[in-house]
Amino acid sequence: MSSAPSTALPAGEGLVAPAPSFSLAELGDDFRRGIWQENGVFKQMLGLCPALAVTTTAVNGLAMGLATLAVMIASSSSVSLFRNLIPANVRIPAFIVMIATFVTVVDLSMNAFAHELHKTLGLFIPLIVVNCIVLGRADAFASKRPLARAIADSVGVGVGFTLALVALGGVRELLGFGSLFGLSIFGASYPPFLIFVLPPGAFIALGLMLAAANHYGATAAKKVGN
Amino acid sequence: MAGELALIAVSAIFVNNFVLARFLGICPFLGVSRKIESAIGMTMAVLFVMTVASVVTWLLERLILVPFDLQYLRTITYILVIASLVQLVEMVVQKTSPVLYQALGIFLPLITTNCAILGVAILVRQKSYGFLETLTFSLAAGVGFGLALVLLAGLRESLALARIPRAFQGNAIVLVSAGILSLAFMGFSGLVRG
After folding, report:
1. CA atoms of B112 and A96, how far apart (whole Å)
2. Taking CB atoms and an 8 Å cutoff, what residues of chain A touch B127?
3. Beta bridge partners of A180
4. Which among A46, A116, B13, B135 could disulfide-bond with A40, CB atoms 3.0 to 4.6 Å apart, if both were Cys?
5. What's the CA angle centered on B144, arms B139 and B150, to 5 degrees?
6. Is B55 in CB contact (< 8 Å) with chain A?
7. How do residues B82-127 score in pLDDT, each as one tens digit?
8. What is the pLDDT of residues A66-114, one digit of tens each?
9. A7-30 pLDDT, tens per residue?
């Protein structure tokens, strides 16, 4: 949780000084950082349970990512709004109750309006409560920042998480079924590489993608060095 | 009855292993599997909290949530039970057995966000298990979690000495190893139906 820069506001300042203490450039930075530099799945290895479990197809990954994004925006904004009212030593239970409330809202709404998806994602919708990324951003970032910055950060991290899930789901669907978002890519003659949609494939696919990212990162760093 | 309970146990430990087939508790699975000792410590803490939490949530579900028609508060209730249990266990262990506290201490706070615990509580409710089935299922889930954790820790202790291609160093090789472990566990599928 030490990833937050040391610009934490002293307690109570938000109440005294309502004037916005941030610029648009700062908001842009908060948003961009979450996409790749502090990507939960690829960089910090957080939130891996849903990332591995539901990404059998790109669509499932997208749905899970969007559900998490919605919970993140709601919980980060309310944590930021209430940040001066919550005593520091009970902050974690307070944050968890807030997150659980929004997860319940998302859970019930998905059950009502997207019933099929809700059935596929099943257990992992209520489990957004214990997604370390959501609690981590609430505690490390939103609890110390004004509303606008908390929203920018949660949107950035949430979109980064969604992109990671879509990427992982896309790779697994492409290799496992030969299709992407349900559209056939390799044609009917493609022999399905079933292991990638089974549980072991999730670990292996993410491991290979991490290795590819490491390789790309190392090559890019070498170019900068020259 | 005993046969049914045995089936539940074998299914939760091997066939639908919580970590390798259901993807619950991946964070501690990757986080504390560097050494076998810490893997065993984590397993003990999880086993205890998981069993108590699923029994307590089972009772709450039967005695309060269903009779008063409050099922929509389920997620909030469950996570509060787990968070306070973890706190309670931490305090009790610290007072009664400083040695055990030293061994488990650092793992206890991590357990609140272990999705295997909340996952077991929710699964028990979805499968509408009775009391003994709940107890068996949660114990077996903890044992299955521990088995996967200790196996991976063993693999990682050997990996630490191996020469690994640069791109795979760090978490990439651990994930691929976990994948192969999961592949091995797929050999158990078909052993028990459901």
Report:
1. 10
2. none
3. A183
4. A46
5. 125
6. no
7. 888 888 878 887 888 787 777 666 677 778 778 889 999 999 999 8
8. 999 999 999 999 999 999 999 888 888 889 999 999 999 999 999 999 9
9. 444 444 444 444 556 788 888 888
> Could you tell me which residues are beta bridge partners of residue A183?
A180
Q: Which residues contact A175 (CB under 8 A, 6 or more apart)?
A: A193, A196, A201, A205
Sorted by sequence, the CB contacts under 8 Å of residue B27 that are 6+ apart come out as: A45, A46, A48, A49, A132, B110, B113, B114, B115
- Structural contact between residues A161 and A41, judged by C-beta atoms closer than 8 angstroms: yes
Which chain A positions have a beta carbon within 8 Å of B111's beta carbon?
Answer: none
- DSSP letter for each residue of A126-195: GGGGG-HHHHHHHHHTGGGS-HHHHHHHHHHHHHHHHHHHHHHHHHHHHHHHSEETTEESS-TTPPP-GG
Residue matched to tokens 């114990």: B139
The residue in chain A having the minimum alpha-carbon distance to the alpha carbon of residue B123 is A123
**Domain boundaries in chain A?**
34-225
Chain A residues lying within 8 Å of B20, measured CB to CB: 199-200
Integer angstrom CA distances of residue B79 from A166, A208, B64: 28, 34, 16
**Helix, strand or coil, per DSSP, at residue B112:** coil
Pick the residue of B14, B20, B23, B159 with the most A CBs within 10 A to test the interface with A by mutation.
B23
Shortest distance between the Cα of A18 and any Cα of chain B, in A, equals 32
Single out the residue of B146, B102, B113, B107 nearest to residue B27, CA to CA: B113
What are residue A184's DSSP bridge partners? A179
Task: For residue B26, list chain A residues with Cβ-Cβ distance below 8 A.
Answer: 48-49, 52
Q: Are A146 and A27 in contact (CB under 8 A)?
A: no
Say if the Cβ atoms of A199 and B25 lie within 8 Å.
no
The span from the CA of A88 to the CA of A107, in Å, is 29
> What is the C-alpha to C-alpha distance for residues A71 and A77, in angstroms, rounded to an integer?
10
**Which two tokens mark B130?**
């009775």
What is the pLDDT, as a whole number, of residue A36?
A: 83
Q: Is the pLDDT of residue A57 over 50?
A: yes
pLDDT bracket for residue A35 (50, 70, 90)? confident
Which two tokens mark B193? 């139906």
CA distances from A219 to A45, A110, A198, A216, B171 (A): 22, 43, 32, 5, 18
- Judge whether A201 and B180 are in contact, CB under 8 Å: no
- DSSP character at residue B62: I
